[in-house]
Amino acid sequence: MTIRWRQILAPLCLSLLLFVTACAPQTSRYDQVQKETTQRGAAPAVAKQAEQGSTFNKIFPKSVKGYKGYEVVPTQEKKGFAEYKVKDKDGKTVAML
After folding, report:
1. What is the sign, positive or negative, of the torsion defined by CA atoms of 87, 88, 91, 94?
2. For the residues 55-82, what does the mean pLDDT come to?
3. Residue 85 to residue 97: CA distance in whole angstroms
4. What local confidence, expressed as pLDDT, does residue 18 receive?
5. DSSP secondary structure string, 11-24?
6. What is the pLDDT of residue 62?
C-alpha cells in the first residue's frame, strides 16, 4: 500500500487554509465610525448649545386633531432630543416623531 504523502498533504493544507480564512470575522462598514466616535477626545454627540428636550413640548400637539382616539405621548426628553409617539385608542404605537 503506497501512500503518496504529497497527494494527501497538499489538499489537506489547502482545505485547512480555506477553512481558516473563510471563518474570519468580516469587518462592518460601521467599524471605523464606531472606533472614531468612542475614542478619547472624540466630539460629543450633542452640541453644547442644544435645547433641552422639554422645550419641544410646545411644538408637538397633545392630540391629533381630526382623528379621534389618537394621542401624542412624549416618551424621551434629553438635551438636544425629544421623542414622541402617536398612539391609537388601543395603546398601540402607530407613529414616532
Report:
1. negative
2. 73
3. 6
4. 84
5. HHHHHHHHHHHHTS
6. 66
Indicate the domain borders of the chain: 51-97
- Check: CB of residue 74 under 8 Å from CB of residue 82: yes
What integer is the mean pLDDT of 53-60? 69
Is 84 exposed, middle or buried (CB count within 10 Å of its CB: 0-12, 13-18, 19+)?
buried
User: How confident is the model at residue 64, as a pLDDT?
Assistant: 62
Beta carbons of 74 and 57 less than 8 angstroms apart = yes
How many Cβ atoms sit within 10 Å of the Cβ of residue 77?
15
Per-residue pLDDT, 66: 66
Query: Exposed (0-12), middle (13-18) or buried (19+): which is 19, by Cβ within 10 Å?
Result: exposed
Distances (CA, A) of 40 to 5, 43, 91: 54, 9, 42
**Are the CB atoms for 94 and 71 separated by under 8 Å?**
no
